[in-house]
Amino acid sequence: MEIKFNEFQYLMRFKAADGFTVSAYLMPADCGDDTDLMEVPVLLQIHGLLGHFLSRGTPRQLPRALYKKGYSSLSINTRLAYAGQINGTGIFDDTIKDIDAAIAFLNDRGFRNIFILGYSLGAAMLVYWASQRKEENVRGLILEGAHYSIPDSWKNDFHKWGSTPSYEELYEKAKTVLGDDPYNSPNDETFVVYQSRGPNHEPISSEIFTYKTWWFMAGPEAGNAMAYKHIGKVKLPILILRGVDDFLVEDWEPGALKKIARDAGNKNVKMIDVPGARHDCMENSVVMMQHIVEMFSEDSKYKEGS
Q1: Which helix (H) or strand (E) holds 12?
Q2: Among 46, 95, 201, 223, which has the minimal tally of Cβ within 10 Å of its Cβ?
Q3: Degrees to nearest 5, angle at CA 243 with 167 and 162
Q4: Which value, to the nearest 10 degrees, does the dihedral of the CA atoms of residues 106, 109, 112, 118 take?
Q5: How far apart are CA 266 and CA 268, in angstroms?
Q6: pLDDT tens, residue by residue, 164-213
Q7: Is residue 91 within 8 Å of 117, Cβ to Cβ?
Q8: Burial profile 245-277: b = 16 or more Cβ within 10 angstroms, e = fewer
């Protein structure tokens, strides 16, 4: 289904392989004809924890900024957009199907220069996807606000704020509820972790999961959400962006990911510290856009195997 939002924006839905409906927002570049449009770089954007239609910053601002520079973008809401974390549909491992569907959507329409940006949680989704897939029209990856390991970041937050239940208590409870086969378990429940994001029991300091969504995104066995385990298998060029004042990603994390990728043989990995930005690098849109445009303009450099 496709709905024209205005003269250059489209809201649409398409299906992943397992039937999940991916909602998306397409902003094509303003080109003279379709042939030119297909050659222009298009950025597939994968959201952070909240999903595109709830977030500020990069998810909302980047499509228009790219349009002004003459580039296209497709923003998707995977099954891990915020409601999925709460209602049980947001299994991290399954987001690979949502990215597959978005790439198929772009391929089917003839786009041949595809770049993919993953923001925060989306960066972990993207690293996992790229470690498992090889797509000839995908030229490079951009990781913004990338965590070394999403589960370890959650664990550190739980410990920092003294969550109720604790990380360890939650793990034991999840094992009891989900049993020996968590993915196929018929049992699941929604729960609140109090004081997981801040110093009190107020809603802003708490988080809601189901046992399944927590298990595959934040639990100690959520290996596919640990970027450091997968980035060494990524052969595509990688641009890593981190806000200098990022309060969610520690200083060492992007450099550690870069080192793993380069030590594994990927020499085309670049890391940029964005001044005047926190977790959202669009707080300094000039620097962020400069490096994205540079990646787009060096097309031959960003082809796998070059």
Answers
A1: strand 9-15
A2: 201
A3: 20
A4: -10
A5: 6
A6: 999 999 999 999 999 999 999 999 999 999 999 999 999 999 999 999 99
A7: no
A8: ebeebeeebbebbbebbbeeebebbebbbbeeb
Two structure tokens written together for 158? 């739980």
pTM: predicted TM-score of the whole model, two decimal places: 0.92
Structure tokens of 185? 């378990």
Same domain, 140 and 162: no
Annotate 88-108 with three-state secondary structure: CCCCHHHHHHHHHHHHHHHHH
d(CA 301, CA 268): 8
The residue out of 194, 217, 240 marking a domain boundary is: 217
d(CA 262, CA 171) in angstroms, rounded, equals: 34
| C-beta atoms surrounding 31 within 10 Å | 14
Write out the residue range of the structural domain in which residue 182 sits. 152-217
Pair 193, 48 in one domain: no
21-27 sheet: strands from edge to edge:
2-6, 9-15, 21-27, 72-77, 42-46, 114-119, 138-144, 238-243, 269-274
Q: Going by C-beta distance under 8 Å and a sequence separation of 6 or more, which residues neighbour residue 140?
A: 115, 116, 236, 237, 238, 239, 295, 302
Q: How far is 126 from 133, CA to CA, in rounded Å?
A: 10
Residue owning tokens 């649409």 = 12
Pick the last residue of a domain from 217, 239, 257: 217
Q: Clarify whether residues 203 and 61 are in a common domain.
A: no
